[in-house]
């Protein structure tokens, strides 16, 4: 397939909540122009197809049966292919709390594997956009599935080790703002452009405002791993809702957060809500999917079984909003969280041709990364081809 082509016509969900009927001119991996619907195309789509920006999941622990902590570099290509099937063109690989050296080794191996995939001549799926550490600087009282004996106080030395292990790929760290040493470490991460995310924390509203002042700019899996949003003494979630500089990540599976609360949170935050999955492959023989979530051997919720495309459909249903509105929270919103909005998240000239192509029922037909189809190429037709 040529690296220069015209795709469409189709309904284009731009990524800012708007739609337009048109065609996309792709040149060398980027969107060159948005063209009117009338005119010639090199690649056409099934009737009723919708083209949107590629989805981005900023919190995933792996895909299929592969876990970044356990399978390390081997999990990256598996995740790349799996996420492409969901319409995702990018994901952030999360390394969970484990023995310190194990965490550093996993991060190093994931980074190396991601670099190799990026440099490969053959694009196989979604891109790994970086690494997140979820732990070990967490509050033991809200650790959930993170084992207490592996939690550590934060130090500048450990923070430097995390950065070095990721070989320039560290993009986010989930920490409890009140944990020992986190204040100094948060300032260091913030100064280096690494996103500080509050999570697994006992912090309430006042502590949340202080955390934002330190440089925390997002919240990991809202409502989970933190105190409740009480009307007299709310958790730090209230601070992150109030402060316009922040985003709030939410697992919209209907189990981690009930549908009415997803709706209420969306109505409050709009584009500042970031859909994510915290997808959790089995981490041990006792892990199981039960009640719509992944549970550890003791019954503790360990993560979700949610796919990012389903998160979009769920938000449509729970908040009663159209596709072009809901998809913003899995495209432009996460791109902004990661500081990648100049290249990703919307269909605009000059941005990467990272595309998700959907049918009229909002299921993924195809995925394009940097102008290259990585999933569903059978749904991309040359005009001369006779369709069955």
CATH architecture of the largest domain: Alpha-Beta Barrel
Shape: globular
Q: State the secondary-structure class.
A: alpha/beta
Strand content: 25-35%
**CATH evolutionary superfamily of the largest domain:** Metal-dependent hydrolases
Q: Which strand order spans the largest sheet, edge to edge or round the barrel?
A: 5-8-9-10-11-12-13-14
CATH topology of the largest domain: TIM Barrel
In short:
It contains eleven helices and 20 strands.
Overview of this structure, please?
The protein is of the alpha/beta class. It has two domains: 4-52 and 347-379, Urease, subunit C, domain 1 (Roll); 55-337, Metal-dependent hydrolases (TIM Barrel), CATH 3.20.20. Helix content is 27%, strand content 27%. It is built from eleven helices and 20 strands. The strands form four sheets. Strands 5-8-9-10-11-12-13-14 form an eight-stranded parallel sheet. A seven-stranded mixed sheet has the order 3-2-1-4-18-19-20. The two termini are 21 Å apart. The model has no long low-confidence stretch (mean pLDDT 95).
Question: Would you spell out the secondary-structure blueprint of this structure?
Answer:
Blueprint: E1 4-13, E2 19-27, E3 30-36, E4 50-53, E5 55-60, E6 62-63, E7 66-67, H1 68-71, H2 74-85, E8 88-96, H3 100-119, E9 127-134, H4 156-165, E10 170-175, H5 182-191, E11 195-198, H6 205-214, E12 216-219, H7 237-242, E13 247-251, H8 259-269, E14 273-276, E15 288-290, E16 293-295, E17 301-304, H9 308-319, H10 323-326, H11 332-337, E18 355-358, E19 364-369, E20 372-375
Parallel strand pairs: 1-4, 5-8, 8-9, 9-10, 10-11, 11-12, 12-13, 13-14
Antiparallel strand pairs: 1-2, 2-3, 4-18, 6-7, 15-16, 16-17, 18-19, 19-20
Helix pairs in contact: 2-3, 3-4, 8-9
């Amino acid at each position: 397939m040529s690296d220069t082509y015209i795709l469409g016509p189709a309904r284009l969900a731009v990524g800012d909540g708007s739609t337009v009927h048109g065609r996309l001119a792709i040149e060398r991996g980027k969107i060159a122009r948005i063209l009117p619907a009338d005119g010639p195309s090199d690649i056409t789509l099934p009737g009723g197809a919708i083209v949107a920006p590629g989805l981005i999941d900023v919190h995933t622990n792996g895909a299929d049966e592969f876990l970044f902590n356990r399978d390390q570099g081997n999990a990256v290509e598996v995740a790349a292919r799996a996420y492409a099937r969901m319409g995702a063109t990018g994901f952030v690989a999360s390394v969970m709390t484990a023995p310190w050296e194990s965490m550093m080794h996993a991060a190093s191996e994931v980074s190396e594997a991601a670099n190799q995939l990026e440099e490969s001549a053959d694009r196989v799926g979604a891109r790994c956009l970086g690494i997140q550490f979820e732990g070990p600087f967490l509050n033991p009282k809200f650790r959930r599935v993170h084992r207490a004996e592996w939690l550590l106080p934060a130090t500048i030395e450990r923070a430097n080790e995390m950065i070095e292990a990721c070989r320039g790929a560290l993009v986010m760290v989930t920490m409890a703002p009140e944990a020992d040493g986190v204040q100094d470490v948060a300032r260091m991460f913030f100064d280096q452009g690494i996103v500080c995310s509050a999570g697994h924390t006992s912090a309430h509203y006042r502590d949340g405002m202080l955390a934002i002042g330190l440089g925390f700019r997002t919240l990991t899996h809202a409502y989970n791993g933190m105190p409740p949003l009480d009307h007299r003494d709310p958790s730090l979630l209230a601070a992150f809702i109030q402060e316009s500089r922040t985003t709030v990540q939410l697992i919209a599976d209907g189990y981690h957060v009930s549908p009415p609360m997803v709706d209420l949170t969306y109505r409050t935050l709009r584009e500042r809500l970031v859909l994510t999955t915290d997808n959790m492959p089995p981490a041990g023989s006792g892990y199981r999917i039960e009640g719509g979530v992944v549970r550890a051997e003791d019954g503790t919720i360990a993560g979700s079984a949610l796919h990012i495309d389903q998160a979009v459909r769920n938000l449509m249903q729970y908040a009663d909003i159209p596709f072009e509105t809901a998809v913003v929270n899995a495209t432009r919103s996460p791109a902004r969280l990661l500081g990648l909005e100049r290249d990703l998240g919307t269909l605009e000239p000059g941005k990467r041709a990272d595309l998700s192509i959907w049918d009229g029922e909002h299921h993924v037909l195809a995925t394009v990364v940097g102008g290259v189809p990585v999933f569903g190429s059978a749904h991309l037709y040359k005009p001369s081809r006779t369709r069955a």
